[in-house]
Amino acid sequence: xxxxxxxxxxxxxxxxxxxxxxxxxxxxxxxxxxxxxxxxxxxxxxxxxxxxxxxxxxxxxxxxxxxxxxxxxxxxxxxxxxxxxxxxxxxxxxxxxxxxxxxxxxxxxxxxxxxxxxxxxxxxxxxxxxxxxxxxxxxxxxxxxxxxxxxxxxxxxxxxxxxxxxxxxxxxxxxxxxxxxxxxxxxxxxxxxxxxxxxxxxxxxxxxxxxxxxxxxxxx
Length: 220
Ligand SMILES: Cc1cc2nc3c(=O)[nH]c(=O)nc-3n(C[C@H](O)[C@H](O)[C@H](O)COP(=O)(O)OP(=O)(O)OC[C@H]3O[C@@H](n4cnc5c(N)ncnc54)[C@H](O)[C@@H]3O)c2cc1C
Fold this sequence. Notes:
There is one protein chain. This protein is α+β, with helices and mostly antiparallel strands. It has helices spanning 8-20, 73-80, 99-105, 112-115, 149-153, 187-199; strands spanning 2-3, 24-28, 44-48, 55-59, 64-67, 85-86, 122-129, 134-138, 161-169, 171-172. The model has no long low-confidence stretch (mean pLDDT 94). Bound molecules: flavin-adenine dinucleotide. Flavin-adenine dinucleotide (FAD) is lined by residues 26-34, 37-38, 49, 69, 91-93, 97-98, 100-102, 104-105, 107-109, 157-158, 162-163.
């Protein structure tokens, strides 16, 4: 069975009912996870977050955006780019994957070399625990006092609860960006180049390596 709640209250009631009746629940964002964590099970409820699609707040002064979990990763950047900001973690699936899925998977992308993974860019969330209890963790500022519970939730693959709201930091778009494409005869040579660049104290905004199998034959 699939359910598509629209509010945190509905998520809470669904989880509480399932908990009382020992029914498994599989949360689902956009279903792009390569590890298959959002695949439905025959004896479980599939809880889709597709209706949690709203950007709730954009705060340029404090450089943060509050979103519902079904908002796509790319939509965050699209919402703030006119004002010269962007959201740094950029999985290649960013056009489709949801921020809730990114939190559950601690997703990364090319920019994470410099700006960190999802865990380094999420500062708060609302989560409904499996028994229906609603918790707010973190908030609108970095490093709140106490245990790093946000660090436990980010990357927990939907096992601890359902994330129903996420607060992310946004960064100013760099003034310039230059792309370099460099060919290497061996993968080891390319890897050594990465090590040399980092050892020289240069942290590029992004780095990606593609081997022969990943590049189409026309480009060789
Ligand atoms: C072409 C392609 C390229 C990709 N590139 C990258 C990449 O560069 N970097 C990278 O890190 N990943 C990448 N991925 C993997 C995937 O896109 C990410 O892991 C993404 O974060 C999954 O988001 P989703 O919304 O599709 O989540 P789903 O696939 O729907 O769910 C993933 C997991 O999160 C849980 N979940 C989803 N929403 C919630 C929620 N609101 N609360 C609690 N749990 C939830 C699910 O139960 C499941 O365990 C790629 C995938 C594809 C298909």
